[in-house]
TrEMBL record:
Pfam families tied to this protein: ATP-grasp_2, Ligase_CoA
Keywords for this protein: ATP-binding, Ligase, Magnesium, Metal-binding, Nucleotide-binding, Tricarboxylic acid cycle
Residue ranges occupied by any ATP-grasp domain in the UniProt entry: 10-220
Source species of the chain: Acidiphilium iwatense
SUPFAM superfamilies, per the entry: Glutathione synthetase ATP-binding domain-like (SSF56059), Succinyl-CoA synthetase domains (SSF52210)
Molecular-function GO term, any one: ligase activity
Domain of life from the UniProt record: Bacteria
Protein name per its UniProtKB record: Acetate--CoA ligase family protein
């Protein structure tokens, strides 16, 4: 669950004592013109819960009220990464001396929180990480409440930040404290700007709330923006299937959410990218044909892993549903099975007989074969 920039600044950074520029949230072009008349030359920014707004034409400068009206009219209503722009933030321009990057996020592999800082902000952090990873300072916080000024100061050592170093260290500590208070998955300031007068201000803020903490963070959840569903996700919901579309090439069909997520993790561990989350546990196994058809509608799917593990549910019943669906739909992608648990022997024999496919003894082997086939 993501907050719009305006909400993230108001509800997250403001209470943390991090300085912001004067701004006005506007829902029509006339409001934007009035705001610029009061603030002077301003940046007009589309309010959508996604990045790369500038590249999409959603961030532009307006020098006058008339220009603000024109710019706001062109931005309002446009679509950016599937989000329709319903409001713009008009924020006063300021003379910028330097731009930095700061963020706090989860590091799931280390089971810790990660503090990031770069002396180069205002750019695509993924590009910086790929081309010059040494430009990004990292600090793992392995004990939840153990990130203080000393840690932040050590993290910044050698970056030639001059007089700004103590203030930046203070901001990192405040940002981490706010991250903990709000059950955040991510708080990112890009850029954190040093103005000509030396002051540090946050020119943008991205905030992602941990969905599981929504019951604790009711005020944040009330204004958070959910990612728009894709057409396939909408179709899956109508079918009563738990389907999430991803950007990989290895399709996944498993019984139970936990097994599905484990399969996704194994795909990533071995260098592949999952194309979806789709589980057919419970009575969803009766929907094997619509589930398989839905998965195969994703044109990125180039191989499929079917992973069944039976306890109370019988794997041979689930395998029969998939085999019958496969023979009716006749897909042309390679499929790799891993079947264990109740009804395993019957399921393995059925898959061999009906599909001419030998299930793997280990899930890892099925996943690796699928990754190779998807190359």
């Amino acid at each position: 669950m993501n907050l719009l920039e305006h909400d993230a600044k108001t509800l997250i950074l403001g209470p943390a004592g991090i300085k912001l520029l004067d701004s006005v949230l506007c829902r029509d072009a006339d409001e934007a013109a009035i705001a610029v008349e009061r603030l002077g030359p301003s940046v007009i920014k589309a309010q959508v819960p996604t990045g790369k707004r500038g590249k999409a034409g959603g961030i532009r400068v307006a020098e006058s009220p008339a220009q603000a009206r024109e710019v706001a009219q062109s931005i309002l209503g446009m679509a950016i990464s599937g989000h329709r722009v319903g409001a713009v933030l008009v924020e006063t321009c300021a003379p910028i001396a330097r731009e930095f990057y700061a963020a706090i996020l989860h590091a799931p592999r280390e089971r810790a929180s990660l503090v990031l800082f770069a002396a180069e902000g205002g750019m695509d952090i993924e590009e910086l990480a790929a081309t010059r990873p040494d430009a990004i300072r990292r600090h793992l916080v392995t004990s939840p409440d153990r990130f203080d000024t000393a840690d932040a100061t050590a993290m910044l050592d050698g970056l030639e930040l001059g007089d700004a170093a103590p203030a930046i260290a203070d901001i990192l500590v405040r940002l981490y404290r706010r991250y903990r208070e709000t059950d955040a998955e991510l708080i990112e300031i890009n850029p954190l700007a040093q103005l000509n007068d030396g002051k540090l201000v946050a020119l943008d803020c991205k905030f992602t709330l941990d969905d599981a903490a929504a019951f604790r963070q009711t005020s944040l959840a009330a204004v958070a923006q959910a990612d728009p569903a894709t057409s396939l996700e909408t179709e899956g919901a109508a079918l009563g299937l738990k389907y999430i579309e991803l950007d990989g090439s290895v399709g996944i069909l498993a019984n139970g959410a936990g097994l599905t997520m484990t399969t996704m993790d194994v795909v990533r561990h071995y260098g592949g990218r999952p194309a979806n989350f789709l589980e057919i546990g419970g009575d969803a196994y009766t929907k094997a044909e619509p589930a398989l058809a839905l998965l195969l509608k994703n044109p990125r799917v180039r191989a499929l892993v079917v992973n069944f593990c039976g306890a109370f549910a019988r794997t041979d019943v689930m395998a029969r549903g998939v085999a019958e669906a496969w023979n009716r739909l006749k897909p042309d992608v390679p499929v790799f099975f891993s079947v264990h648990g109740t009804g395993e022997d019957e399921a393995v024999a059925l898959v061999r007989r009906e599909l001419g496919v030998d299930p793997f003894d280990f899930m890892e082997d099925a996943v690796c074969a699928a990754i190779e086939a998807a190359q």
